[in-house]
Every structure is written in C-alpha cells, then in structure tokens.
Amino acid sequence: MSFRADSAEVIFVGIELLLGQTLDSNACFMSRQLAELGISTYRHTVVGDNPQRLEKAVRSALAENDLVVMTGGLGPTSDDVTAEVVAALAGLPLIKDKAVSDAIRSRYPDRSRHDFSSYPLVPQGAVVFKNERGTAPGSFVFLLEHGSQKAILMLPGPPDEMEPMFHASVRPFLETFSHHRFIHRYVRLFGIGESKAEERIRDLLENQKEVTIAPYASMKEVVIRVSQRLKEGDGTDLTHALVEELRERFGACVFEIGPRPLELVLLDLLAEKHLTIAFAESCTAGMALSTLADVPGSSASLLGGMVTYNDEMKRRLLGVAPQILSSAGAVSCPAAVAMAEGCLAKTGADLALSFTGIAGPGGGTPKTPVGTVWIACAREGESTVANKYHFPGDRIHVRTRAVYTGFDLLRRLLLGL
Amino acid sequence: MSFRADSAEVIFVGIELLLGQTLDSNACFMSRQLAELGISTYRHTVVGDNPQRLEKAVRSALAENDLVVMTGGLGPTSDDVTAEVVAALAGLPLIKDKAVSDAIRSRYPDRSRHDFSSYPLVPQGAVVFKNERGTAPGSFVFLLEHGSQKAILMLPGPPDEMEPMFHASVRPFLETFSHHRFIHRYVRLFGIGESKAEERIRDLLENQKEVTIAPYASMKEVVIRVSQRLKEGDGTDLTHALVEELRERFGACVFEIGPRPLELVLLDLLAEKHLTIAFAESCTAGMALSTLADVPGSSASLLGGMVTYNDEMKRRLLGVAPQILSSAGAVSCPAAVAMAEGCLAKTGADLALSFTGIAGPGGGTPKTPVGTVWIACAREGESTVANKYHFPGDRIHVRTRAVYTGFDLLRRLLLGL
To answer: Which CATH class is domain B7-178?
Structure first.
C-alpha cells in the first residue's frame, strides 16, 4: 500500500456545534490520537449539515492533506449528509452494508423508529468499521484528487460511539499508513501549579532539540509531554534521559510516568496494598466516590461512604458530636477528623477520607472564605491526618480540586512521601 | 456605519488545540454568542501558530464572511503571531497601545518574565478592548477585501480572560453591527429517544418555514431548538405556536421549556414543594448526589445519602436485610426498595431515591446483563415505587443514564404524571 498519511484535516459536521449547543470533545480526542499516530493536523473545520458547504470544506481539506477525517452527520435522519457528500466526491455509489444493517436489526429487534431497509449506506468499496454502541458505522475510502491518492475517514459524531470504535478498529487501521511514528511519554504531576512547573524546567523548555517537551494543565494534574519524532528506520529512543531528569526535578509531585490519571494510580496502589477505602463527603458531595467508581474494577478497594450535606446528616450518618459542629463548626479541623473517623468506624474500611468546605458561591465568611476545604484521612490503628486548603475558582473548580487533592494526600501517605 | 455583520467565521489559534491538549470551550461560547447576535457562523477553523497558515486561513475566511473572529495567539511570546498577521493583511502598522501597557505595568510591577517595552502591539486605528484578567487586549479592525468592507475581531485565548471581555465590551460593540436577531427557544425532553422524537415531528421537520426546529440529544436529554430569524423592524414572534405544538406532542416527556437542565428542574420542584431528598447509590456511586450538588443552592433540598458499593455496605449503612441480598440479590426489586426505605429511615428525608445495577464492563449474568439497573423511590407515608431499566453503552453511559432516569422518575412522581 503506497498511501501515506502525513497530514490530516479534521472536519466536524453538525449545526449544533456551530450553534454552541454542544462542546466538541471530539476535537480534543481526535487531535491527540492523530498526533500520537504521527499524522500532523494543520486545521480543524466545523461545518453545518449543508451539503454544498460540506463538499466545499472537504475539497479544500483534500487539496492540502493526505487524509480528511470527518465526524458526525452519519445518522439515519435526513440532515445526515456526510456519506452522501463523500460518495459523490469519490465518484462511488452509496450501497447498503448488509452485515451492519443485519447487526442493527438483531440489536434493535423491536426498532420501528427507522426504516433500516436502506440504512446504513456506505460508499462502495469502503473499509467499514463496526459501531458497537450505535447504528452508524465508520468508513474509510480512497480517492484520487488532482492525480494524487487521498483518503477520507468518516466516523459517527457521538463520542461514546466514536471513541470505542476508534480504539478498537480505526487506530490499528490508520497505523499502517503512518509515515513516521512519534514516541510520546507523559510525566504527570500533582501538588505544583503549571507556572511553577514551567519555571522549574524553563531551561529545558528553551533548549529543545530532537526531543520536545510541552507542559499542560487541567484541574486534575499538570502533565509534561515528552515527544520524539522517529524517522523510518531510525529507532533510538532519546526520551528516557529527559523523563528521568523531570522525575528528579519534581520528586514527590510525580504520581505517574505514563497514561494513568491520579484516581487510577490511587486505586492500583490500594489494590497492591490490599487496602479498602471509604469516603465521608460534604462539599464534594459524592464527587470523590463517583470519580473512583468511574474506573472499572474499582469495587475491589472502594467500599462506599456517606454524603453529609448538612450538620444533621453529619451527626446521623457519621456520628459527629453536636458540640464539635456548634463550637468549631462544620468546616473545621475537628469536624473533618470526626467525619473521617466516623466513616472509618461505620464502614469498617482500612482508610477513610473526609471533605468539608465551602464550595461557593454562597456560604463564605471572613474567617472561612469560599474555597476553604478541610480534608482528613483516618487509618485503622494510626493517627488521623487533617489539612486545610484554599482553592480558587468557582464551585466545580473548588470541588474538583478538593477531590484530587484528597487523592494525592492519600497517595503520599500510602507511599510515605 | 454601513458595515453589517451577517456572517462570521471563527478562527481559533493555538497549536495546543491541534494537539488536543486543551478542550476548546471558546468554540462553544463564541458560537452561542454570535448566534444570539444574529450573526450566522458557517465555519470554525483551528490553526496552529504558523504565520503562513494563519494568513491563509484568515484570507479564506474573509473571502466568504463579513466578520472574522480570532481567539488566541495574542500573548507576548514569539509564537503569538495573530496581531502581526492581521496587521499585515489590513496593511496597518502595529503600534504599542500605551494605555494598555501602562495598565499592565501597574498590575504586574514585578513582572520580569516578559519585556513589556514593545507590548502589547495592536493594529493602528483598531478599536481596543481592555483585558481585566490578563495582558493581551482584544482589538477590532476594518479592512477592504476585494472592494467590500470586512472586519476582524481579535480576542485573547484563555476563556477566563476572553469571556468577561466579550460580555463587558465586545458584545455591546458587535450589537451595533448586527443586521437582525434570532429568537431561540428550547423544548427539553426526557423519556424518549432522539430518533423516536424525530419520528414524532417528522412533518414539522420537513415543513420548516420562518421558524426552524432542530432536535439534538445527549445522555441527559433530548432538546428541540425552535428558532426564528427576525428581520429589522419586523418583531412578530412566531415561535410560541410551535413550542405549544411540541408541548402537546411530547406531553409528560417535556420537563422544561427554557434553559434549565433536568437536575435544576428537579431541585426547583423540590424547593417549591418544601421537600428534602436523600440518595442510596450502588452502581451510580455518588453520581446522583454529585450531579445535584453541582447546582449552587442545592443544599436547600439535598440532605445527602449513602454510597454502598458492596453487600456489606448495603447492610451496614442502609440496614438491607441479609436474606434479601442472599435470595433476590443486590440487583433486584427487593434490594432497591430496601435501599430506598433504609435511606429514608436513616436520613429522615421526605424522599429517597436508590440505584442498584450492573454498570459493567464486568459483573453481568444472563439473568442480569450489564446495563440492568433498578431504581426505587421511597416517600414518607406512601408506598415505594421501583422500576427496572436496561441501559446500553459503557460504564459511564449506564451510570449517567441511570442518574437522569432517576431524576425524571422523581419529577413525574412529584407532578403526578
């Protein structure tokens, strides 16, 4: 196969994207995937469901790239025009993929909502990717544009359909066309801000050669990406030395060198030590529990816990002494400690983490402003640890920062850092 | 002022967007703002910091639109090239905006990181918008393209700088150029799938005139947008009749006509009826609690609850009888009922909602496959209601669908639907 995908443009199809009704998480996902495949993306385009504009966008993308990736507009409804436009461009007839439509019919036996007699349609000769979560399959076609070979990849719009499809079948398929490959390694930090982290590696940032580094931050971590572009044949991996350098500079802040987010690192650590955990959440109100439960298999270490959103619940569910709440208040060291120890006693877990604070926008006082959060960790047979934090930003920001700060506190305690 | 902004293209500048390191929330924000201003957006483009590609993107955007909105690439570092490219295109010299740089210096007296002697630079004669949160100002320039008047608006990339600037000064400024405005109204549904909903309004979808309608779906709702474009002078709102038609066709599935998501509708309903609520969550593991707690002021109705991730916790925290768990199992009608009633008793809430199911990927059986969820609602002095559901998709999908299905079940019970 002579076709090589060096450059790509991604076209996101959907009027709802132009109207700002949905946040396009596909852009983020697709960009990262293509970067890791060594396919350079120079442009994203978002267009509505208008066939003329869509065709124009595809043509202009084909003129400058080997590969055009399109998401959205593949459904059974009349405003789904992506396949039509692409088939016309490629000069291929649209045919019904029997395997796919049979699969759909078997999955939705009582499905009267759509006439599947002529759905889904894919360009003749296209490589078809199965959709395990929905009805619209993905497909990949080659076409000649001004005498040079190009390709178009069509994927469904819903991230929960597109992402599994991409991981399962599209990515392995695209890898066969990638001209050179990238090594990407990720050093993940918690407990240091993005600008502080940048200061600490300014010299490295300013002297990048074959190996490049790029820090980026979210509420959940600071990640430093270490990348090297390998030409065909040349296989020397130069990233290790730099990763070790970063590990040294950031010490205990490094919670992972690799792909795992903090919650997964924590769960793996708990499983390895055969420890169970429970949570007593006030201001975070179930976010810590829910975040860990997002991870498949978390039930091995995660027992559960209580969400106590007012004083009475802290008394009823966690047995916090009324005088603690009346004297020190619900957002205090004694309250956090009592919550964690009460949770430990009532659940029988090996570890209990408690959160109590002011997420805002209301509820702040001069003594305890919005963003103040106490986090305590109680451990079977050990003394309870409690820390006070102040997180900037809005309600979601304060709660998310609190949850991950609690996870990191626990990680450091378990590792004796 | 003869200039009218009927159509716009938005160009997002930043290599980090192409590498998928940041989710571009600006796209969502800007699209909605322009739509509300009655400025049609036909395309979004994301480009890196490369001057040639950026110039090309701006030229192609100018060729087809009155207005080009650019975000990002305005900082003091060398890879911030937006102002340069635009000034060159407009044939305007870049000059230093003294007012702005003085403001910066007074705000960052000890700022040694950057040399502000020649920063920020803006095209001569540009309308400059103050940045209250950062250093890069926004700016707006007119230019002639093929004899017709066009305009370019440059805004900083960070949302926490751009959005306040837009609300404070950019939007009022743009309103003076907007040719006509839109009315957008939203009919929000739960309890019906997107395709079923489309089937039910196919006739309306196929006969759209001045008032257009567009359905779109997420895990949390199906929303039907009803839009009307008002020409200058003409102020008759034709959307009401259509909204009423939709209300009739979808009946109990309509939970909101307006902007409120289901969780907010539920919380408002609870507050209005002076009812408190608590949750007993197994497979959803705190997601229901956390989702309600995301809403400021939710503590008025939300007391808290328990997350019981295994049988022992269901016994310990909710008092579920061991024989229920051993005979019927944890994912069963009796277990869901016992969890809800146990939660009601232990929290003293007026209402308690319980979730128990198999989120997957593991844990499924032929009798109880992955996606099976029991949801029960216990009410003070009334008999407990329990329903069995089966949700498709992965772990996150199953848990999210379960949470919103529980919210909707409660809404319908409270309204007697």
So the answer is: alpha beta
